[in-house]
């Protein structure tokens, strides 16, 4: 059975979408079959893998207009496919609220292909609304990207409370797959303090790899390519390759990394 991860952080601009794309691409390069699910109406993940404005997509899927087979698209990266999103998904949140089984739409939609992929990676919007709840209900584990700043610590508390409610009421098997730091700048004391505090509290739940602030990571989406294709030798590319290896290791062996290493 494949492993379903959901990327969640209610704060925007923390590298959530970049992380989903980059990890998916590097896992695919390891020979794993990977399906990216863009569950954010901004559709940044879709454009980041060259599938911008492609329909039908995830909105048509959860609306029952298209089948799962019709919405899965290949990307230029072998073994990596995507279910794209569009602005239409913003209206789905309103529609879902009115449905009796509103929290299970995505889980039901993905069920036919769950065992067809080694990894399914779901990118959610920067909120804790009904779309993100759908992502959490659909997943085996949550991956939490964190920017190294003060407000990230405040937001983490609310996110963990939400995860606990989902575990209690909707998805008892949901796990915290791990936390990892993004946009790390070793020159700032605040970044070092955030890493130290979170690592001390969550211990083995924190991935060893830290993703540095890197301009090449920002450039890659404009070319419709993951960093593994755009500039794998950049510091960001090397960091995400290392992070993907950690994710693969944990998924296979259930072993959590220890310690903290700062990306190059």
Task: Give a structural overview.
There is one protein chain. With 264 residues, the chain is α/β, with parallel strands linked by helices. It is built from twelve helices and seven strands. The protein has helices spanning 16-29, 44-48, 58-62, 68-71, 89-97, 105-110, 130-138, 150-169, 189-202, 215-219, 227-230, 235-253; strands spanning 3-7, 34-38, 73-74, 80-83, 119-123, 141-147, 175-182. A hairpin with a 5-residue loop joins strand 3 (73-74) and strand 4 (80-83). The longest helix has 20 residues, at 150-169. The protein is globular, with a radius of gyration of 17 Å. It starts with a strand and ends in an 11-residue tail after the last helix.
Mean pLDDT across the residues is 90
**Overall morphology:** globular
Q: How helix-rich are the residues, as a percent range?
A: 40-55%
- Count of helical regions: 12
User: Terminal Cα separation, in Å?
Assistant: 35 Å
Q: Strand order across the biggest sheet? A: 3-4-2-5-1-6-7
